[in-house]
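User: Thanks for the earlier help. One more: Keratocan. Can you show the sequence and predicted structure together?

Assistant: Of course, both are below.
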Amino acid sequence: MAATVYFVVLVLLVANTACTRIARQIYEVTHPDDWTALSFDCPPECFCPPSFPNALYCENRGLKEIPSIPSRIWYLYLENNLIKTIPEKPFVNATQLRWINLNKNKITNYGIERGALSQLKKLLFLFLEDNELEEVPAPLPRSLEQLQLARNKVSRIPQGTFSNLENLTLLDLQHNKLFDNAFQRDTFKGLKNLIQLNMAQNALRNMPPRLPANTMQLFLDNNSIEGIPENYFNVIPKVAFLRLNYNKLTDAGLPTSGFDVSSILDLQLSHNRLTKVPRISAHLEHLHLDHNRIRSVNGSVMCPATPVVAGMRDSFSDGPRLRYLRLDGNEIKPPIPMDLMVCFRLLQYVVI
């Protein structure tokens, strides 16, 4: 229960921070007398709305180069163009940039001038999805909080890439070409505040090594992962959301304790090769086991031990916290076993 409350508070805090930033963008409106000045320094290829003087809209314009960015700009939209390079020159005056969207361009690593991004000392969000990157770009500004690199060709993460990114909370590397050899034991060193790591739709056969200790959301769907090392979750004691759908997990590939990890609240193991229900924690609230090879469910065996911890007895007065369970697509025949319902008294949704 404490973990649930912690996560809800975290989500609300993040949402409030995001809303505050958006509110700043909306209400930091320049006086009408200054609109002429705004138009004067606005790149002719882009649009500078008078009501949002901190934003510069250059998306969907067939641009091949990044225009010169005015010093007043916080939010820069350049998605869906034909841009191949990120030189340093257009950003010389853009010292206030917080947000850059360069999704759906043709940017390569060779096209990023060294220092072009790291000079942006206030940058918080960098979107480079749907480009032609083959490795994670570096160096990046220490201020960065979100790095979105989905749907590129990333197969390499150079040593030290993340060493100075202690403020990064979200790293999205889904749908790239990452193999196990892309990772060293110190690859993620420096990511002290990382909360979400998404490496779905790559070519991993093993769990990534030595993840940041603060990781709460780990997404590894659509890989070829066959097993999880013993005590793997000791390194990420705060993980609450774990997605391993569409992998090659077998019973033999799971740790002895299964997923009996008190921090995990949502566990997704759909479309794997499991023949029995793995061990779970009494804290778990959502469990996806659909489309495996499970033939039967024994509620007595599956039922986790209720924790006996000072101050937590009232929280578990109704037993384990499981509320959502998917078992469809297996070889299990209805009806739902009665001993399953006896154990999991809080179950609200069961598919079998």
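User: Great, one quick takeaway?

Assistant: The helical segments are 2-27, 35-41, 299-302, 338-343.
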